[in-house]
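Thread: Newbie trying to understand structure tokens

Hi all, I'm a second-year student working on a class project, and my supervisor (Dr. K.) asked me to get a predicted structure for one chain before our next meeting. I've only ever worked with sequences, so writing a 3D structure as a token string is new to me. If someone could post the tokens and maybe explain what I'm looking at, I'd be very grateful. Here's the chain:
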Amino acid sequence: MKVSAKTDISSPPSPSLPWMAQIKAWLPGLGLTGLLAAMALGIGQISHNAGIKLLNPLLVAVLLGIVVRQTVSLSAVYRPGIQFAMKRILRLAVILLGLRLSMAEILAVGPVGLIIITSSTISTFLLTIWLGKRLSVNPKLTRLIAAGTSICGASAIVATNAVVDGSEEDMTYAIATITGFGTLAMVSYPLIAGLGQLSPETFGLWCGASIHEVAQVIATAFQHSATSGDIATVAKLSRVLLIVPILLGLGWQARGSRIPGQAQKALPIPWFVLFFAGLVLLNSLQIFPTAFKASVAQGNQVLLCIALAAMGLETYLYKLVKLGLKPLLLAGFSWLFLAITSLFLVQVLS
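---
Reply by user tm_fold:
Sure, no problem. This is what the structure looks like when written as tokens:
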């Protein structure tokens, strides 16, 4: 592994390149994430044989990435591939999860599940905005934390930043806090599920309604069971769709403060969610052979491990301390509120 004491992985990526050169630029990072994924799969298999369910390969992958990121100064040559794995490979893996689901399983979430997801998401967003004002946290950073916690982690933060125009420092800090608390959820939720004897359905809906990143939801829920993972995936992707009305609301709110003549930025559309839904519809028609779906599921496990290793490699733990405690307290309280509120609603209503 090539390392550099002078160049850090946080260096900006190279500008747009021809597609052959782009593929070449991705190779170092993909090689690193692939290596970590292989290690995670090996550790997961060994722990499974030993009866240790906590060491799920998806969780191991993100933890390995975090350890490497904090202990090794990686050359910037790795970053394009890491970014590719964290964004495009992750979205492909989420799309392929559609082969695990059918409309009958989606309907199992039901109107009550949608009510739980919507109410917990919106209440968390509004509470975070209110608390940010009380703590005197930068309003733009507050909105980034609110979106990242309540909707879908880093992708929501990036999308929200396109509307509120926060600084790169704000966005980096928000992503660091959200990733940190999401990783904590990956470890703590299965323990809570065991102590509380939560059913697979309850645990899956809770994960989907409260954990930040899509990948973190998947990694956590599948530790419990396939049923929990399937329900969590649907619940989480239903929650991701709430980014559209929230961004529209933020855009409308920011309109009065926009510089005259400044162009409005287009709202991002989570296209991978639409492709996921399309694959679920096709799978509901029972046109795919069982053997084919089993093979895709095995390959998709590898893709998810690669994406989660990349997420770990992009986790900057030192930034949680660098910019002060108030935003960290805001993100922590927001996470706890969403976790407790959604679990309460799941237990009472479902």
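A couple of things are worth pointing out once you decode it. The chain has 14 helices and no strands. The longest helix spans residues 103-134. Feel free to ask follow-ups in this thread.
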